[in-house]
Amino acid sequence: MSLPILTITLLAPIVAALVIVFVPKEEEKLCKWIAAIGTGAALLLSLYVYFGYDQSVGGLQWVDFGGPVPWIKDLGVTYFMAVDGLSLPMLLLTNLIGFAAVFASWNVTHRAKELMIYLLILIAGVMGTFIAQDLFIFLLFYEVVVIPIYIMVIIWGSSKRVTKEYAGMKLTIYLLIGSAFLLVGVIATFIQSVLITGQANMSFEGLARVPFPEDFQIYMFGLMLIGFGSLLSMWPLHSWSPDGYAGAPTAVSMIHAGVLKKIGGYGLIRIAIYVLPLGAKFWAPYIAVLGVIGVAYAAMGALAQKDLKYVVGYSSVSHMGYVLLGVASLGVIGVNGAVASMFAHGVMAALFFSMIGFIYEKTHTRWIPDLGGLSHQAPRLSVGFMMAGMASLGLPGLIGFVPEFTIFVESFRVFGWLAVLAIAGIIITALYVLRAGANTLFGPAREEYRQVKDLRGAELVPLVVLGGVLVIGGLLPSLLFDMVNSGVAPILAHIQETLQIGGR
Amino acid sequence: MVDFALTHAWLVPLLPALAFVIIVFLTRPWPKLSGAVSIAAMFSSFVLASSVAYGVFTNPGFIERPLIYSLRWFGMEGFTVDVGVMLDPTSAMMLFMVSMVATLIQIYSTGYMHGDPQYSVFFSYLSLFAASMLGLVISSNLLQMFILWELVGLCSFLLIGFYTFKISAREAAKKAFITTRIGDFGMLLGLLFLQIIFGTLDLAGLAERVPHYEQYGISLGLLTLIAILVFIGPIGKSGQFPLHVWLPDAMEGPTPVSALIHAATMVVAGVYLVGRTLFLFSEVPGAAEVIAFIGAFTAIFAATIAITQREIKRILAYSTVSQLGYMMLALGVGSLSAGMFHLWTHAFFKALMFLGAGSVLHALHDKADVWEMGGLIKKMPITGWTFVIGGLAIAGIPPFAGFWSKDEILVVTLEYARQGHALGYLLFFLASFTALLTAFYMWRMIFLTFFGKEKPENHPHESPLSMTFPLLVLAALAAVGGLIGTPWANVWGKWIHFGHPHHGEPNYGLMFFSVALAVAGIGLAYRLYYQDEEKKLAKQLAERYQPLYKLSYHKYYIDELYQWFTRQVVDASAAVFYWFDIHVVDNIVNGLAGATKLSGQGLRYFHTGRIQTYALVFFLALLVITVVLAFGSPTLAGSMGGVHS
Q1: For residue A82, what is the DSSP state?
Q2: Is residue B416 within 8 Å of B296, Cβ to Cβ?
Q3: Which residues in chain B have Cβ-Cβ distances shorter than 8 Å to A406?
Q4: What is the Cα–Cα distance from A84 to A482, expressed in whole angstroms?
Q5: Which residues fall within 8 angstroms of residue A218, CB to CB, at 6 or more apart?
Q6: Could you give the CA distance from residue A257 to residue A347 in angstroms, rounded to a whole number?
Q7: Which residues contact B459 (CB under 8 A, 6 or more apart)?
Q8: Could you give the 3-state DSSP secondary structure of residue B117?
Q9: Which of A285, A297, B347, B490 has the smallest C-beta neighbourhood within 10 Å, fewest atoms?
């Protein structure tokens, strides 16, 4: 019997957190190094799992303990950890960003020990949602995530347009409200499945085989859409996103925008669509409309911003609109694009926030009109910032373009002119990204920033890791797409089958 | 060697790409070394490209059947993208031209950028640009082309904004990127249509399928729309009206960049793309007419701006816009030969003139106003006389290169008119009038810059050999580069054509006409700016027709219009969206939160912890339910009963 490698990956940051608990809080550097080792180990393991996955076989692989381990028998809850082509990119993304986030927090001196502990718990929680193949365990991890987020925002956050307390509260309440809707939907679905099949089963695969009635599917999908949608900052449930990211410390912004909100997209595909295909069919056009509104609306919102973090905050809402559009197409090409786009956006958003974090550390401002000419003092920082920006505006050669194009192909085919509005978003995106980037970095050097030091040492890690992924993913999109496709295609095949039998 | 080159043509773009990586990661601290790496890679790829061109131009089979090889880039069911190489005379010609001009300009840059603190960075950008541009040229797939199209745009952005200490450079860089992005949006839609309808973006595949578009269930109208959407990309990239505004501002970049990217190579990518997809445009006469008219209009429009500009590089920039319009016109009337021929000759004389302008700016420490120059030819003979050759070429004086290609365009336009196309003669008139204006404004610039009285405050000196050598090579090409396309022995047309090769008889009348236009333009400039030493007549004319003069000098106020639109419409609506977001959407959220809080406070009275209260509530509730069940509405009672049954 092989090692339960996913469980080990999950435990790596938790073990690191436990070790840090016993380190005296004056030993800040040591705490950070332990966190780096913990997340680094998880990153290496997830790379190993990613490249060891056999795409030609497909399906769930790397199953821990050989299969579902019964846990709460009456409810059919099992400890079931496994990955497929849908989970793996998200797992890898979590650990890429988690590792980078530790280094992005390298200069934090205020209660660094606690920060690292919460950060590691957060990373483990997010990771758990992506590798759990059991609904109950998924929800459990999802709730684990909420606690550190709130604490981290109110202790290490910053108050600008809104206070950090407000931001933290907003983030947390949204997460909770989302999970409340989700919980209702999930419990109802579970009970209904017991009524239909007479068996208690919480695994996604098991639930997907239950023939739920159409009306039921439509209602439950609606509830889950509110839950996952608010997590994914779907318009009009997005307003936590800009405020929350602006108030949060760098590491939280990176993880939240980079990967936590992707739980929404992941859940939508893995749970809502997979288990409730008839509901998905009913809601798809509405999701598409909300997605398109989100793209255009948030892009315009980003254009009006002067605070760098708000620009990226709105920008991430806008990008999630593309993801929703891809998901709503309910076609393999579109959903592939959506998943790849989540990965791509995660990397670029994390890089963006880490660079903004450094800019803020070094200049004590994020206000674009007060910035300028930073490329003179900090060329590496500028490269990182521009790379994130260029990826965000969908520059080919970086990771964002192909997923976006793939979404366009499918959504243009399915939704026609509605998609054009979303595609037009690329112009507005270029406008706000270039304004933010060029006005911050280019132009004459400013006297007040003469002392600014470029990135060096540990500060370079986020740039190297995330920037490297941006380029590799851009040049070799098949590394990502083949994996995503091996996970998405069977799910959508299952849905097509169900829809045909449902035949309505 | 030739066979190796043909099967390894992908090395041509790869070598500069490697140079980019090497400079960025290894040699950046050593400027001289970086420059050497860049030039060595560029020259190697020029040698390879020459072999490719030799291989292609000695094998007539490539005209009908291009050499194509490709590999899968990514794919999924229903959507695959292959990237690869497509070699035919058109791409081989471009490969040769681009790699040669790029090599010359890199050599020139070693002199021009000497001592710049960002020297290594500059060469890394030039290498990245060359890689992207050469990759674009050999692309076998439209998506691949689009990707590299965007990458050359990125390089253009970086190089326009290269002097980061200048605010104007930063603004110009942004403007270039965003304006071309508007074009790319249209093009992207066009590509999406093509992918969805024809199931491929391979050039060869599309060339096969597009002519049978009815079998794919689409109408001529939709195909016309698709073609026009695709053409919006070139409108942006090749500076056609109304997206031309970025190109003159792009002169904020270092002059070698203006010569390479914004005259000889990148800006002609749009022309090249239209040439590459002529199978699409030839199917839809409506779209072809649009191209011809936009081209002709851009040509005359930019020429009328160029006649009053004062900055040497701006005059050249408007001239580039105008000449690009000329190329588009040729493609619009259906002649790949003429369009590509003008692209070829233009690359030489325009790169030459830009580099010459750079040499002048270098000598005068970046003083750019032609009215403050004069008599420079005495101190700068190589720059001056090579510039004069460029001026003769662009004006259309035989036997210089521009004459032959311009003549070819006039010939095909006239033929187009004679075939009975509505307004064909208007196109011909616009093209002819542009030729006259071109000769005039170019020689206005030449007389003001190089002839006439020397200005005592200027202390010009000839540039170093690294800069004059490329000028000499380009001058030679500008002089004789057109001889391969004379009407008597049209080697060019035999190799590069779409459909059937063009077998026009030499039209001596038209030749005479076009020379007369050129001589008239030069003569007028001579009269106004050389003979008249005080330039009295020119000033009088400007005063008498002041409204017209101002309109031209202020570029028809189009920049102002766009600026107004961006500020008053785009930014203002962004502000409205943001206001809506924080005042409406957010307030609803906060309101909901407030309501929850209030209800929480209200509900607190129920949550007292006193058993008596709970018992009371419990009792009351039971009472209510019983009463309802006993006396309530039958439907409600019935439905509740239904639960048990």
Answers
A1: -
A2: no
A3: 79
A4: 12
A5: A278, A279, A282, A283
A6: 9
A7: none
A8: coil
A9: A285
Tell me whether residues A442 and B147 touch, CB distance under 8 A. no
Q: Is the preceding peptide bond at B60 cis, omega within 30 degrees of 0?
A: no
How many of the other CB atoms lie within 10 Å of CB of B641?
Answer: 11
Does A304 contact B593 at a Cβ distance shorter than 8 Å? no
**Rounded CA separation B375/B407 (Å):** 32
Range list of β-strands (E), A60-219: 69-72, 77-79
Query: In Å, how far are A150, B12, B65, B167 from A30, measured between CA atoms?
Result: 25, 50, 66, 44
Element (H or E) spanning B148, and its range?
helix B142-160
Contact list in A for residue B166 (CB cut-off 8 A) is 443-444
The number of CA neighbours under 13 Å toward the Cβ of A195 is 9
User: How high is the mean pLDDT in each 10-residue block of chain B (645 residues)?
Assistant: 85 94 92 93 95 89 86 88 90 93 93 89 94 94 93 93 89 92 93 92 91 89 93 92 90 90 89 91 88 94 90 91 93 89 92 91 82 83 91 90 90 88 88 92 90 81 88 92 83 80 77 90 86 80 84 85 86 86 79 67 57 58 55 41 35
Q: Give chain B positions within 8 Å (CB) of A405.
A: 143, 188
**Angstrom distance (rounded) from CA B340 to CA B93:** 9
Q: Which residues of A28-59 are buried (b: 16+ CB within 10 A; e: fewer)?
A: bebbbbbbbbbbbbbbebbeebbeebeeeeee
Could you give the count of Cα atoms lying within 13 Å of B114 in the half-sphere of its Cβ?
A: 12
Rounded to the nearest angstrom, the minimum Cα separation between B55 and chain A is 30
The residue extents of the domains of chain A are: 5-502
The pTM score is: 0.90
- Return the SS3 of A330: coil
Query: Is residue B167 a contact partner of residue A444, using CB atoms and an 8 Å limit?
Result: yes
Task: Report chain B residues whose CB lies below 8 A from the CB of A395.
Answer: 150-151, 154
User: Dihedral (C-alpha) A121, A126, A130, A131: value to the nearest 10 degrees?
Assistant: 0
Contacts of B583 (CB under 8 A, 6+ apart): none
Continuous H helices in A209-366: 214-231, 240-247, 250-255, 262-267, 274-275, 277-303, 308-328, 332-363
Give the helix/strand (H/E) hosting B76: strand B67-76
Tokens 């960025």 locate to: B24
The residue of A315, A385, A427, A491 whose CB has the most chain B CBs within 10 angstroms, and thus the best one to mutate to test that interface, is: A427
| Chain B positions in Cβ-Cβ contact with residue A482 (cut-off 8 Å) | 74
Q: How far apart are CA A311 and CA A306, in angstroms?
A: 7
pLDDT of amino acid B110: 92
Q: Do A477 and B573 touch (CB under 8 A)?
A: no
CB contact under 8 A, A443 and B164: yes
- Is residue B134 a contact partner of residue B14, using CB atoms and an 8 Å limit? no
Amino acid A158: pLDDT: 81
Chain A: closest CA distance from residue B569 (Å): 12
Distance, CA of B389 to CA of A451 (rounded, Å) = 51
Chain B: nearest CA to A381, how far in angstroms? 15
ipTM higher than threshold 0.95? no
Q: Do A300 and B577 count as a contact with CB atoms less than 8 A apart?
A: yes
- The answer, for B569 touching chain A at a CB cutoff of 8 Å, is no
Do β-strands B79-87 and B67-76 pair in parallel, antiparallel, or remain unpaired?
antiparallel
Give CA torsion, residues A99, A102, A103, A105, to 10 deg: 150
List chain B domain ranges. Answer: 1-140, 142-283, 293-553, 554-607, 610-645
Q: What is the mean pLDDT of chain A?
A: 90
